[in-house]
Amino acid sequence: MLKKFEVSTFILRVVLGMTFFVHGLVKFQGGIENIVGWFNAIGLPGFLAYAVASIEMVGGIALILGLGSRFVSALLALVMIGATVKVKLAVGFLGDGKMAGYELDLALLAMAIVIAINGSKMFALDQVIFKGQKSESKSF
Sign of dihedral through CA atoms 103, 35, 26, 18? Predict the structure, then answer.
């Protein structure tokens, strides 16, 4: 049973990491200043665009590698809550034809919460770096 659980959380961790890494990378490649302008236009401070893109990109890499998975997942969950409440909730679950709804955001939020609560030890660098310590079993 434990092996199935570890395999499951490993899959969630890696897929979540890849998804957020790509989203963060695209924000920088597409011109982060465009995202800054959009944040300003929706009433958020522009500097948050840098924070969100960095959390997504660096956090995505950290998740793939298994570094600080619980903490990173908690940060990503906060990003998804913010995105859902500030932008996506108004367009509904499936969107309005112009913008996607919050169905993907909700799925990513659920994945992040699972990893934040349970951690993910399989193939995680944390297990090598903190060998002998119980870092994953403690609350964050």
Answer: negative
Tens of pLDDT along 45-85?
999 999 999 999 999 999 999 999 999 999 999 999 999 99
Residue 139 belongs to some domain of the structure: no
* In contact, 68 and 62? CB cutoff 8 Å: yes
Listed in sequence order, the residues at least 6 apart from 129 whose beta carbon sits closer than 8 Å to its beta carbon are 67
Residue 116's identity, in one-letter code, is A
Q: Total domain count for the chain? A: 1
Secondary structure of 23-79 as H, E, C letters: HHHHHHHCCHHHHHHHHHHCCCCCHHHHHHHHHHHHHHHHHHHCCCHHHHHHHHHHH
Domain that holds residue 49: 2-129
Q: Which amino acid is at 132?
A: G
